[in-house]
Amino acid sequence: MIRTALRPAWLLLLGVLVAVVVSFYQLGMWQLGVSSNQASREMAERQAARPTAELGQVTAPHQTFPDDGAGRSVGADGSYRAELQFLVPGRLLEGQSGYWVVTPLRTEASGEPALLPVLRGFVTDPAQATPPPAGEVSVLGTLAPGESPGPVDLPEGQRGAIDTADLANDWDEPIYNAFLFLVEQDPPPATEELTLVPPPVFGESGIVWRNVGYAMQWFVFAVFAVYMYVRFLRDASRDPREPADPADPADGHGPGPTGAAHTVTSTSTAPVKEPTS
Question: Alpha carbon of 216 to those of 122, 205, 226: distances in Å?
Fold first, then answer.
């Protein structure tokens, strides 16, 4: 079988098989990607369709993050506390590694002064992290739950994550158990050194089963192509001098229908006429 597979014609067929299997695999993975992307788009559309609410209508300081709060568009008025601004290293944006710039907004949206961490933007160099504008501002953004704790051995002015539990221990005012992906700010920032971070799509985006079915079909086609190659190769490798199956009656050498040879004899019993005189 190996000798047959090494013949030029079969090597060429093997190359075709590899190309076909790789193509079918890529098509299957593409369908899986389409399934996930379409589900994410649908989730993003549902997320964007929810109306913007005031921060105080969605959550309050020290309150557990609401079940439907992730991805909610909220607005708030207040002033930034620039002295509490910090950077979160190790973040990516459009393939670039850099820092999140986070500044707490002091707001009375829930009836009492409290601090809301606001992700104002992204920079690739800490020197680009400009201070926030002074005075009253109105912010609009996407609400997100606090992150899990990150690295702690960092330079001064940096934190491993937007961990609201850790921030509550360090800041001197009540804090919201959430943070905001900034989308709009009024008045707008004086400089454009900070790049806004697009809010993520929250929730279980799921999959589109129709496209998953298409992907499974391509994978099955790939397996079937391999099976047919192996089967044809095995048939071509069979020695033509191998004796035929003795149980096969089509070769004319097998036993008769009753399993034994028969000898047929016949005798003539025609009457003999007597001679006449």
Answer: 40, 20, 16
Residue 247 has pLDDT above 80, yes or no: no
Amino acid identity of 199? P
- Residues 120-157: tens digit of each pLDDT: 999 999 999 999 999 999 999 999 999 999 898 999 99
- DSSP-assigned letters across all residues of 133-182: PSSEEEEEEEEEPPPPP------TTB-SS--HHHHHHH-SS-BBS-EEEE
Angle between helices 8-49 and 209-237 (to 10 degrees): 170
Measure Cα distances from 255 to 9, 28, 33 in Å.
Answer: 40, 53, 61
The first and second tokens of residue 82, run together, are 């620039």
Q: What are residue 256's phi and psi, to 5 degrees?
A: -70, -175
Phi, psi of 61 (to 5 degrees): -60, 140
Residue reference for tokens 């095995």: 234
Q: Taking phi first (over 0 means left), then psi (-120 to 50 degrees means alpha), and beta for anything else, what does residue 189 get?
A: beta
Rounded to 5 degrees, what angle do the CA atoms 144, 120, 58 make? 35
Query: In terms of Cα–Cα distance, which of 84, 83, 33, 74 is closest to 51?
Result: 74
- What's the predicted TM-score (pTM) here? 0.60
Return all residues near 165 (Cβ < 8 A) that are at least 6 apart: 146, 149
- What gap in Å lies between CA 208 and CA 262, rounded to an integer? 70
Q: Tell me the pLDDT tens digit for each residue of 158-212.
A: 999 999 999 999 999 999 999 999 999 998 876 667 999 998 876 555 566 777 7
Which three-class secondary structure state does DSSP give residue 118? strand
